[in-house]
Amino acid sequence: MKAKPPDILTDTIVRRPRLTGTEPCTRTEAKVQFFHASYDTRRPEVQAALRACRRCPLNAECNIWALARPEQVSDGIFGGTTPRQRLTQRRQLVDRCGDEAAVENVLRRAYQQAVHRRTRNTNP
User: Fold this and answer.
1) Is the CB of residue 122 less than 8 Å from the CB of residue 22?
2) CA of 118: how far to CAs of 18, 108, 113, in Å?
3) DSSP code of 100?
4) What is the pLDDT of residue 29?
């Protein structure tokens, strides 16, 4: 039996948020685009994507997931942030935590808290 090649999208720090199909990024009829040639936040199409993303109930989880995977999500708007904003957030985390292991722990805890907050708010 052949060994299965490693899946580069395997989530080792936090899992990808479970999408329901109602999120702005999953609606095929939506006019909002989440991938652009430029992520200048003054551009109307980037502002529209950021607004749509920030209204999503999975916003916090998606942002944390993207922060945990900078090499795979270096493009696109995720969790209401542009690539540059995520890079800044990631650098601040590394500066504050000191090393990658500590960053991973912070992201895991933050993700668990975001899931808990969302599920508590949607299941009163």
Assistant:
1) no
2) 12, 15, 9
3) H
4) 65
Q: What is the pLDDT of residues 23-50, one digit of tens each?
A: 888 886 668 889 989 999 999 999 999 9
Task: Give the C-alpha distances (Å, rounded to integers) separating 36 from 13, 27, 51, 55, 123.
Answer: 27, 17, 15, 20, 35
Burial per residue of 44-62, b for 16 or more beta-carbon CB atoms within 10 angstroms, e otherwise: eebebbbebbeebbbbbbb
Secondary structure of 44-91 in the HEC alphabet?
HHHHHHHHHHHHCCCHHHHHHHHHHCCCCCCCCCECCECHHHHHHHHH
Question: Phi-psi bin for 11: left (phi > 0), alpha (psi -120 to 50), beta?
Answer: beta
Percentage of the residues of the chain whose pLDDT score is greater than 90: 59
Pure H helices in 5-58 = 44-55
pTM for the whole thing?
Answer: 0.83
Distance CA 29, CA 32 (A): 9
Q: Distance (Å, rounded) from C-alpha 36 to C-alpha 48?
A: 12
Two tokens, residue 108: 């895991």
